[in-house]
Amino acid sequence: MLTVLLISQCILVVVLIVFAVALLGMARQIGVLHERLQPLDPADQESGLEVGRAMPRMALEGVDGPSVAVGEALLPGHRQLLLFVAPDCPVCKRVIPSALQISESGAADLVFVGDGSRPELTELGKTVIRGRAPLTVAAELGLVLQVSRLPFAAVVDEHGVLAARGLVSNSAHLEALLREAA
């Protein structure tokens, strides 16, 4: 009888330790989510190239394709939607399909600007984007626009002028950004 009581107490201690480790893991994940979802200070969005200013002319290096020109004049009535994404960003992976649908509807010419290592970006291009829009790497463009959080979008009008910019987390944000740019 004493042996059974001793074994049950040992099992109870082990279960308690497992629960404590699980609780610490969950607390860490809550902290990570809290940092990702914290509200932005409006002053954070005001830095970088201002809306209404000409975009610098750049040739963005393609990850697995040709380079893409930014800041150049586009065909009349066309706009360029620059969407900054990262392979390890869960919100980016939710926004990418919406951006592809918007692009395929003809609302804007979509260009993904990736942040991450080339192998990760190549994998993102193969699994999520699947060649439906160009995927580029351009840290310089991120610096010009002062992109500090992802996913971030910028709309360039037919004259190569920055028409709208901001953080996006769903299709409604993307559509609002395109309306703002009109």
From TrEMBL:
Q: Which UniProt keywords apply?
A: Membrane, Transmembrane, Transmembrane helix
Q: Which PROSITE patterns match?
A: THIOREDOXIN_2
- Reply yes or no: does the keyword Membrane apply: yes
Could you tell me which residue ranges the Thioredoxin domain spans? 49-182
Task: Answer whether the UniProt record assigns the keyword Heme to this protein.
Answer: no
Membrane-traversing stretches: 6-27
The source's superkingdom equals Bacteria
Q: Which InterPro entries match?
A: Thioredoxin-like_sf, Thioredoxin_domain
The protein's name in its UniProt record = Thioredoxin domain-containing protein
Which organism does this record belong to?
A: Acetobacter oeni
